[in-house]
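Notebook entry, structure prediction.
Reason for the run: the old model in the group folder had no record of what sequence produced it. Starting over properly, with the input documented here first.
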Amino acid sequence: MRTPMGNGVATKLISLAAEFLESEDYQKNDLLHRVRIFAQEASFRRSAVGFCLQDIVFTALALRKAMEETVFNHVIHNGYDEEEELLTGIMALNNFGDTMICGEIAGYFAYQDYRQEEDRIVA
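New structure, fully documented this time:
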């Protein structure tokens, strides 16, 4: 995430996570679809510059963990006694994170398929 590409991806995903956490129930499916597509496209590009699946998933898990820790720290720092609010936030981030990671994996394999097709055309 220290590269311009990684920083841009992380910034956009954090923005989408905040939007998802603040969204109404009827908006959540559309936002998750946007998250999956964005993560897939970002992973495709990272695969094209040489990232392996392990690197891509590890980075996505690190971002997911950072977002969860932020929610924990925010709730605990503000002294909320509402367990329901904390659980709702964590469950929403789990849903967001699962979708993000699925998109990342799909993007990696989409790039692999693209490369195989390109190799067949050249041969």
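Summary: The CA atoms of residues 44 and 109 lie 8 Å apart.
The old model has been moved to the deprecated folder.
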